[in-house]
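pipeline/complex-builder :: batch 7 item 3
reading input block
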Amino acid sequence: MPAKKYHHGDLENALIQAGVDILFQEGIEGLSLRKVAKRVGVSYAAPYAHFKDRQSLIAAISTEGFKQLYTTLDAAAAAHAGDPKQQLVEAAWAYIQFAMQNTAIFKIMFSGVLEKEKDYPAFVEISHKTFERVVEIVRACQDAGVLRSAPPELMTVSVWGQLHGVISLALEGQISHTVLDRFTIREIVSFGIEQMSLSKT
Amino acid sequence: MPAKKYHHGDLENALIQAGVDILFQEGIEGLSLRKVAKRVGVSYAAPYAHFKDRQSLIAAISTEGFKQLYTTLDAAAAAHAGDPKQQLVEAAWAYIQFAMQNTAIFKIMFSGVLEKEKDYPAFVEISHKTFERVVEIVRACQDAGVLRSAPPELMTVSVWGQLHGVISLALEGQISHTVLDRFTIREIVSFGIEQMSLSKT
DNA sequence: ACCTGAACACCGTTCAAGT
DNA sequence: ACCTGAACACCGTTCAAGT
């Protein structure tokens, strides 16, 4: 028996990954602690050695999602260094694409399943870090005269809110067909950003 | 025995109302078919005589929520007839207030628990009607030169998206404290609308 | 037509016990 | 420290049966 003690050295991460996989394959309704445990091959009680409760596992999965989101946003901005407006547009598009390609995890990140500010410090940290990264992009746009001058954090909430609202409504099927038949999501998003811009470029 | 046949003549609406009450008192996690049945005083199986499944009850509750939302939006607009900009601002504020005062039902209306376009014609109807009401307000703003000229439906999605995104992020606790300490939700929303306006009024 | 009782397969969570 | 087995209270859903 050469193998590891008990099951494997890193049950915690195995559980998180199994959760992400289930979210991908079965959507948000399919996620349960028992199913996660079964997929990893441990007893129903085993996850409780690593996560206080269901919420706590969801917090870990959401944290994972935010890390991925941060990475793609940062990459999009880095790819257009020196061109603030393009940074904003492409980061926005990266956000939309993340939401469309990872619908279940995106929803769980924001769908309030994570109610209380019940600590989850890793989640708070990466979520703040992501916000700050967007503030940087917005500030660069203001300095370049692309976005109106206003408190950068306020402008960021405004831009992010717009983006988040449009994609959320789209994912819920709430956007009228009279709109979706005539405009793509990308066009809708571009229109929104264009409205916040000082001048058309 | 003077009473009604079986339980009461309108178990269907009693179930919907009980669901709304539970949402208010216990939030979204507390809602279950069994609890709804218990509160009304019927067996666990009784709801199935009126609703195909859990989703179907949720659809009915969401429909109820949309009716209420429509009423308050319409009232806000009616109260400022002849002043398109004020109509827009007050309707927007009514939306925000509805979300903040009826958090659980607002979340269930939009939180994608209602996945498929699995019919629910009453839901689709009131949801469309609400959208069209907002389009009217937006169109009036464009005619009055308050909002930029653009396809009204596109502009409506943009305005609605902004609003919906900001309040959703706020309800999830995703809006940074560096923003919330300095601005009220109303100020954030006003800022968003101001940005879409042609000129400051 | 409208409802009950009992059953089935699934949950989250706890706790004593094993290594 | 890390995991199992068994238990408890709760789900959604179905179905035969009652009025």
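note: Chain B has two domains: 1-51, 54-196.
queue -> next item
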